[in-house]
Amino acid sequence: MKRILTFVIAFSMLFTFPAFTEEENITLSFLRIGNDEPERNYWNWVIGEFEKANPGVKIAYEEAAIGDPMETVLNTRFSSGEGVDLIGHGILSVAQRVEANQYMAIDEYFDAWEGKDDIMPAVLANGTYKDHIYGLGYSVTPFVFAYRIDLLEEAGIEVPATWEELADAARELTVYNDMDEVEFSGFCFPTTGGNLVELDVFVYGNGGQYIVDGEPVFEGNEKVTEALEFLKELLPEVNLTYSANEVNPFVSGSAAMTLINNAALTTMLGNPDYEGKVGIALPPNNGVDASFCGCNMLFIGKTCKNPDEAFNFISFALSKESTLKRAEMTKIPVTLNSLVEAYAQMDPWNAARSLCVANGTGMPRVIWSTGFQTVRNELHQNALFGGMEIEDALNKAQADIEFRIEG
What we know:
Blueprint lengths: L1 H23 L1 E8 L3 H17 L3 E8 L3 H12 L6 E5 L2 H7 L7 H6 L8 H6 L1 E2 L2 E2 L1 E14 H7 L7 H11 L1 E2 L5 E3 L12 H9 L5 E2 L2 E2 L5 H17 L18 E5 L4 H4 L8 E4 L9 E10 L6 H11 L2 H11 L9 H5 L5 H9 L1 E2 L7 H16 L5 H17 L1
Parallel strand pairs: 1-2, 1-3, 13-14
Antiparallel strand pairs: 3-13, 4-5, 6-11, 6-12, 6-13, 7-8, 9-10
Helix pairs in contact: 2-13, 8-10, 16-17
């Protein structure tokens, strides 16, 4: 009987032990937008360190390409009821997926987080919607003012900080051919493109906004009008025609100054032909320090069954150690105020990059944000390069965006 009892106990333990282990371990699914190698390497490092510090929690990491692939995966997961626990996504997703009941509000977690006062307010704003916090930024893509140090010094010109200084410098540095056409641009600005945020930099630098209290305000908008008037007068004299989807003429050596995505400067900064010749600064403005800055954030899926562990992972990924490691591995600016000095020590131009992040505004967090992008692009083209009067272009933009909202 003793042998039989011993066998029964051992046999029962054999089958109950795995169930106990499974209860003690938690697996969080994590889907990140993008499939670039530096980001992948960083997240593999973070996940490895997190799992070592939290042996009971595993992260099941996946990636999806920017655009339709990412949206398709999320839509499929949530429509099937499976959902995703942790999501790395951009600003344009905030309003749509909050309204679709797919992102969890994390106000209580944020309020108890010791790092809450360290994150840059401009970065925090990107994940805030209707007075609730849903996402916390981990990756920022600021637009910077890039200029040729050598050309400005040769002409005895200080780095422009105002619109007036920019216009004077651009005219001075522009070179014309025998037909009086711009051959070398003093300041290049895109004529077409997928998301013409360069106009936004001038609007924000003039203290303007396109949206007030969640409503579009194109028609009669004096601040937007002033930005368009400034550019409409200047660009024909100094600009080269190009698309924002193409290589910026500044990068190819055909312009003295420009507004450009920080990441798009990487190739030029690594080119020995331009070593020591390229500078970075906060964009010239008309009274308000401002730039455009995109942002990817970490969200917790509304269906997540382990939100405590999910936010623990977010706080780990956004810690000072992880954030500084990210800057080292991906060359992307930090998002924490306390790390600005350490980040500046990595590269002499990082201080300027941090200024562009701290003063950066991203895409609007409204459910009609994709419609806004289309309408703003059309305004840019109609008013600056299409021959339409600015007032008419603004009125058309107002009518178009209202039609899209109502439709």
